[in-house]
Amino acid sequence: MSNSVIFKSSIGKKVFMALTGLFLCTFLVGHLLGNLQLILKTGEEGRRAFNEYAYFMGHNPFINILSIVTYAAVLIHIIDGIALTIQNKKARPVAYAYSKPGANSSSASRSMAILGTLILVFLATHMANFWWKMKVKEEVPLHTYKLEMDNPMMGAANAELYYTHVPGIQPIPKDGKNIVEKGTDLYIKGTNVKVAEGYRDLHTLVIDFFSKSKNEGALFAVLFYLISMVVLAYHLLHGFQSAFQSLGINHPKYTPLIKIIGTGFAVVIPFLFAIIPVIIYMNH
Amino acid sequence: MASKFINITLKIWRQKNTNAKGGIETYSLANVSTDSSFLEMLDQLNEQLINEQKEPVAFDHDCREGICGMCSLYINGRAHGPETGTTTCQLHMRSFADGDTIYVEPWRSRAFPIVKDLVVDRSAFDRIQQAGGFVSVNTSGRTMDANAIPVPKADADKAFEAAACIGCGACVATCKNGSAMLFVGAKVSQYALLPQGKVEAKDRVLNMVRQMDEEGFGNCTNTGACEVECPKGISLENIARMNREFLSASLTSDK
User: Fold this and answer.
1) Which of A85, A96, A107 should one mutate to test binding to chain B, selecting the residue with the greatest count of B CBs within 10 A?
2) In this complex, do A10 and B13 lie within 8 Å of one another by their Cβ atoms?
3) What is the rounded CA–CA span in Å between residue B166 and residue B189?
4) Confidence class of residue B147 from pLDDT cuts 50, 70 and 90?
5) pTM, whole model, 2 decimals?
6) Regarding the domain delimited by B5-115, which CATH topology (the fold level of the hierarchy) does it fall under?
7) Shortest Cα–Cα distance, B2 to chain A (Å)
8) Ordered strands of the A194-200 beta sheet
9) Which residue segments constitute the domains of chain A, with CATH numbers given?
10) Measured between alpha carbons, how far is B247 from A14 in angstroms, rounded to an integer?
11) How far apart are CA B255 and CA B131, in angstroms?
């Protein structure tokens, strides 16, 4: 296999751009499905559902591997995009004095690099606001839920309680040893009796961030989010269908369908992302 | 249609040679027949310049019938001018109005260095062709009749459509990335679709793409501008076919 060819050649670079781009499209769907829980369920139920989801995303081994693949895809997409842009700029050292690109191509298709850069700026703020606080600074408070259970030890007034430390373990004595299984949960000391479940409260962090009563900058945050989703839509408008062409898929039967699906994807996915902070802003 | 005469202002890129610094010069040209072709209009300008003891504008042309691929010119911001499916030699002055200002620039690409004024060196295309744009036929005198090999009509038609590429370079000129993928895609496709070309298909696409990259053309970002501006209507399908051919060749060939 000609490794060098596939990595160095112009077409090879395009193939990597297409593959990582399409993979990130599937990431968007997954991320959106998680986010929709912020508005589909309300109150304590919604809070718990979202925090459980966040816990699952942070602790499921398959998701952990998938997240590494996602970071890698983002990096490759960025590095490849920069390499392509530099080469493409070099390919025309002297610009035309007068050019009418609008006569033959869409503005989205000509602006992928700048649209991508804007998405990267959004991504940086997005990760600073949520990912950094959740994963690195660990300043997200624990949210605990009382368990309704019939347990004689619950009544012990002097029972010493503790919760297992982040990322959370449930000690289940087995052959005299505690087996790590799940949870940032509250236990009665020296037992495996769980009295409450706890999750890092990402839900409150997100809701407060976009809430007009909790955050003075919420309006700006919502507007920035909306603009970023418009940028994402334009990026996808060209990117989705362009990826198929790069992979060599251009067929009289399928290409019209790919273009319709691509346009639908580019409109629906960013739209659904965008309505979430708007609804939070209005309701909180 | 009754012929009309118009007066125009031309803004033309003048550059003494490859290394000289060029610039836009402005010329007024009166009494241009709307029946004349764009190149005839430039002939008229050159007569005027020669009469004024000035250096005429150098531009490429040959058949003036729209089939040789010699004419070029980036006219008013578009390759081969405002009409679609038209080479510059087949563009007529009736496409312009009295009093118009017309920008005329050479193809802009690192791989197409300017020779003089509006003439660019397109030998990069020749080198790409030489890298694989051929079928190795044994010319011993006992070669098989080409028609003895069955070719599906649909494939023959597609190969012919790809082969309609005249190698003018409008795709490179109009592409915001200066990419030559429509040209190379067409040249790869015209052979890849035919049984005679399939024998060397893997090496061909690998070698032609390598040469294309070495020449310093940009990378395709699927804007589709080339397809719109191509005077021969070469389809983007040819780029997709080249991508397919390249992918499978690079994954399966020994190279």
Assistant:
1) A96
2) no
3) 14
4) confident
5) 0.88
6) Ubiquitin-like (UB roll) (3.10.20)
7) 29
8) A142-146, A194-200, A186-188, A161-163
9) 3-93+104-141+204-283 (1.20.1300), 142-200 (no CATH)
10) 11
11) 15
The residue ranges of every structural domain in chain B are 5-115, 123-252
Which residue type occupies B182?
L
Tokens standing for residue A113 = 């690099």
**Cβ neighbours for B206, distance < 8 A, ≥ 6 positions apart:** A2, A5, B132, B246, B249, B250, B253, B255
Selected residues 63-102 of chain B with any CB under 8 Å from a CB in chain A: 74, 76-78, 82
**How far is the alpha carbon of B254 from chain A, nearest alpha carbon, in Å?**
6
Residues of chain B numbered 171-210 and touching chain A (CB < 8 Å): 174, 176-179, 181, 206, 209-210
Residue A131: DSSP 8-state: I
Asked if residues B246 and B184 have their Cβ atoms less than 8 Å apart, the reply is no
Q: What is the per-residue pLDDT across A60-80, written as a single tens digit (0 to 9) for each?
A: 899 999 999 999 999 999 999
What is B123-252's CATH number?
1.10.1060.10
Residues in chain B with CB shorter than 8 Å from the CB of A7 are: none
The residue among B121, B120, B117 whose CA lies nearest residue B42 is: B117
Counting every residue, how long is chain B?
Answer: 255
Contact of B218 with B187, CB cutoff 8 Å? no
